[in-house]
């Protein structure tokens, strides 16, 4: 629904009531990413880390099989999902999930948001790097490594031109 702090309109159109509620509470002002995660019965996600300790993730149970058969483990702590209940995690810690139901899928709303100790300046820099990385990887998959490298060089040159101080001013102070 939200990716890199921007609404994905085609996805929001699929879930208009959810998108409306998220807009009402200002999710797009604080969330970098909002999505719904579906997990089929008798499946799990192996232990992993996203390596992003500058983000936190809120997980809210939407549709959860009964009898507390769905869980998420973060480090040594285990959280049992229930519909309407939330937990917030630091997903840079090793975490995994399991849906132990034999018949029912599990749906969770995930809101990834900036860690409160990350400054606005740090957010801007991190957002630039995350967007550049995603763009590079999607171009590489779609068009190959050479195209991705060319696009990265072009983007860097544009950024360098915008970010660099004027050469005359920089050398005048030397």
Can you tell me about this structure?
This protein is an alpha+beta fold and 174 residues long. Helices cover 39% and strands 32% of the residues. The chain has helices spanning 9-14, 16-24, 27-30, 120-143, 145-163, 167-172; strands at residues 2-3, 6-7, 31-39, 43-48, 55-63, 70-74, 77-80, 86-89, 95-99, 106-114. The chain is globular.
Helix content: 25-40%
Number of helices: 6
Strand order in the largest sheet: 2-1-3-10-5-8
SSE class:
alpha+beta
Q: Cα distance, first to last residue?
A: 49 Å
Low-confidence spans: pLDDT under 50, at least 5 residues? 164-174
| Average pLDDT taken over every residue | 84
Number of distinct beta strands: 10
Strand residues, percent: 25-35%
**Helix-strand pattern:** EEHHHEEEEEEEEHHH
Cα Rg:
20 Å
Report on the biggest sheet. Answer: 6 strands, antiparallel
Global shape: globular
